[in-house]
Amino acid sequence: MVLVSTVPIVAHALSTTLRELGHRPVALITARRPTPHPDRPQMTDESAPPGLDLLLPARRSSMAPLMRAVEPDLMLCWGFPWRIPADALAVPRFGSVNCHPALLPRHRGPIPLAWAIRDDLGAYGVTWHRMDAELDTGAILAQGTVPMDDDDFEIQVVGPRLGAVALGLLPGVLERVAAGDPGDPQPTEGTSWAGYFGEDYAIVDWSQPARAIHNQVRAWALSFGTPVDGPIAEIDGRRVRLTRTSLSDPGGDARRMDAGDGPIWVVAFEPVS
Description:
The protein is of the alpha/beta class and about 270 residues long. It has two domains: about 180 residues, 3-Layer(aba) Sandwich (Rossmann fold); about 70 residues, Roll (Methionyl-tRNA Fmet Formyltransferase, Chain A, domain 2). The protein has six helices and eleven strands. A seven-stranded mixed β-sheet has the order 3-2-1-4-5-6-7, sandwiched between helices. Strands 8-9-11-10 form a four-stranded antiparallel β-sheet. Strand 4, helix 3 and strand 5 form a beta-alpha-beta unit. Helix 4 runs antiparallel to helix 6. The radius of gyration is 20 Å and the shape is elongated. About 35% of the residues are buried. The mean pLDDT is about 95.
């Protein structure tokens, strides 16, 4: 098998689990991060799982030749920013499979975790699906849900819960793939796109319900790669970026604010110009 990911902890978990299940991961295809971030480290020889060839294509068109050199039976993708071209997806003889953190067809796209919070779903989703030329549209092989906590602000907190559910589904996914099961076509109803947030969601309106504001702050905390700056609020005449809020008084230096239906506490914020 060849793995495709830019997330070291995901690559390690996949590699370990596959070996425990009796499979043989042989290579990892990754990509350079244009803007490194402490929460999203660059995959390197030091951070990649041991024993795998580390393949670093400079462009999408390089993926198929690299894949052919490995001659994989299956490609497993989880946490990769590019839309993988069809010629690369066609190389593995059992096909290509992706793990998407949403209950497809809802929340296709780049920031599904943030949209699950924005839509106040109360739970995240996990879907293993076959990959095709479009984004997050392939047939479903397995799905599960992950409880959402009110204190979810960091991927380091949410990620392990998602990973546990996804890896728990993986044996059944591989059984379906080995049996030649094409998967279940995605429903045509309930489709939505989890695109990057825009200016319409960037400003905090204190007249909104406390829950809506709290969800807005949490959603922005998991909106990786969004080009717009948010969530921006005004406190004492200053423009600030809210980074953490609470629906109950956490004590300490938390600042109580009046929302449309009651209080909300600002736990942390950053000044903006």
